[in-house]
Design brief:
Helix content is 34%, strand content 18%. With 497 residues, the chain is an alpha/beta fold. It has a domain of 137 residues. Helix 4 packs across helix 14 and helix 6 crosses helix 15. InterPro entries: AB_hydrolase_fold, Peptidase_S10, Ser_caboxypep_his_AS.
């Protein structure tokens, strides 16, 4: 009898998949600022993930411009914690390039991005957790959250999303993200895999999960924290004498200083590098467009060679946001201890090299908000790139155990790093991937775009790949859009980079 009920249930479920399709009310018919026909179907809206707290997560879904019925579905998550995934949409790999308006009150002009990741995949840009971007909770107590709750809510989102868009149920599915998504992605992947294994979940919407990719992602306090000082030395930012002195007093443990001498030495290192843009040490630090005319004129007087460091094929000058945190200049040493680098990455002083004007202008325009189906202003008054209303608790510690579980279970993983990022240096990511002890099956080698070295890669058993992108900073697709589309396409289609 139980078997018969199960057969009937499965029949009804598959009938639902065949007869239902994407909700037309969520279709984005036009995008203000863009003239012409959209290159593929776009959808946007909300999924309620917690009725008790009124948690509603906002998504913007871009169908593949190639073959949406067969191409993989990818969920993109930005970091923070607390940053909207419209960062990826506007500045990194979304379907449009945005041009900064020349006059007040004018919308940014949008043109097609030839390096959009939607060229080869369906992609969901999700504002997560509730309180980020256009996502919200009616009960503001929900804005106190953490690793476990966010992974659970995002998993609920995916199960419900595939019920809304059942025609994508059988497409291969991947997770992707950067920065603090180094926490979001493996914890969410863990929940997805457990849901696939669980018998009851099979009766719901099974996710055809295949793997994940993380760019310049935080992973482990020790590996990430210990990467900064050697990276600064290797890049010529501190002298050999200062490096050796720091090594000596800190005993090569920089992530958690235990003595006053070590804390003061780390503070000295921080002061030496405090004038750099931590998201790309080669890039000039563009200061705010506030009332201080000196900073504006200083930006204008930058040598042309420096300005070119912030130029990519995306159209906008590369600009930096509050993804991570840096040691504040002149940090206060309490009881002989300065906060550790990872603690400050997860919640310290804001870095002033920020300019998010284009995204802010576009996403807070009434016509745009109406077109992309955002919540009423009584629920989400204003879109900001990175919110300060979250109280986030990172309680699960190192992500290494999650990576081991996932790769052992047969899921593909790509850990990629812009090699000029000082916020989450590639050396830390390289070290923890190596620490897994997996056999190397593709020895360290360059990879190429247009006959030029684009970075270096090393392949391990259990479908784990580590990749660097030459000259890129913290947000790799923003700096190297062509290279990023290449390795993204290769990875999601299971091809060698």
């Amino acid at each position: 009898m139980v078997g018969a009920i199960r057969i009937v249930s499965l029949f009804l479920f598959h009938f639902f998949l065949v007869t239902q399709s994407a909700p037309t009310k969520n279709l984005v018919n036009q995008v203000p600022g863009f003239d012409g026909k959209l290159p593929s179907k776009h959808y946007a809206g909300y999924v309620t993930v917690d009725e008790d707290h009124g948690k509603n997560l906002y998504y913007y879904f871009v169908e593949s411009e190639s073959d949406p019925k067969k191409d993989p579905v990818v969920l993109w998550l930005n970091g923070g914690p607390g940053c909207s995934s419209f960062d990826g949409f506007v500045y990194e790999h979304g379907p449009f390039n945005f041009e900064k308006p020349k006059a007040k009150g004018v919308l940014p002009k949008l043109t097609l991005n030839k390096y959009s990741w939607s060229k080869v995949s369906n992609i969901i840009y999700l504002d997560s957790p509730a309180g980020v971007g256009f996502s919200y909770a009616k009960n503001e107590s929900a804005y106190e959250t953490g690793d476990i709750r966010v992974a659970h809510d995002t998993h609920v989102f995916l199960l419900k999303w595939f019920q809304l868009y059942p025609e994508f149920q059988h497409n291969q599915f991947f997770l992707a993200g950067e920065s603090f998504a180094g926490i979001y992605v493996p914890t969410l992947a863990n929940n997805i895999v457990k849901g696939i294994i669980d018998e009851d979940a099979r009766m719901q919407s099974k996710i055809n999960f295949k793997g994940y990719m993380i760019g310049n992602g935080v992973c482990d306090d020790k590996f990430d924290g210990n990467a900064l000082v050697p990276f600064a030395y290797g890049m010529g930012l501190i002298s050999e004498e200062i490096f050796k002195e720091t090594e000596s007093v800190c005993k090569e443990s920089y992530y958690n200083p235990q003595t006053k001498d070590c804390a003061l030495q780390l503070l000295k290192v921080n002061q030496l590098i405090s004038g750099l843009n931590i998201y790309n040490i080669l890039e000039p630090c563009y200061h705010s467009n506030g009332t201080d005319t000196r900073t504006r004129s200083n930006n204008n007087r930058l040598p042309e060679s420096f300005k070119q460091l912030g130029v990519s094929e995306r159209g906008l000058p590369v600009r930096k946001r509050m993804f991570g945190r840096a040691w504040p200049h002149g940090a206060i040493v309490k009881n002989g201890i300065v906060p550790s680098w990872p603690q400050l990455i997860h919640g310290g002083a804001n870095v002033p090299c920020t300019d998010d004007e284009v995204a802010f202008l576009w996403l807070n325009n009434d016509a745009v908000r109406k077109a992309i189906h955002t919540a009423d202003k009584s629920l989400v008054n204003k879109w900001v790139l990175c919110t300060d209303q979250l109280s986030y608790h990172h309680t699960l510690g190192s992500m290494i155990k999650y990576h081991q579980y996932l790769t052992f279970s047969g899921y593909r993983a790509l850990i990629f790093s812009g090699d000029h990022d000082l916020c989450v240096p590639y050396t830390g990511s390289q070290a923890w991937t190596s620490s897994l002890g997996y056999q190397i099956i593709d020895e360290w080698r360059p990879w190429f775009i247009d006959g030029q070295v684009a970075g270096f890669t090393q392949g391990y058993e259990f479908n784990l790949t580590f990749l660097t992108i030459k000259g890129a900073g913290h947000t790799v697709p923003e700096y190297k859009p062509k290279e990023s589309l290449y390795f993204y396409k290769q990875f999601i289609h299971g091809k060698k980079i």
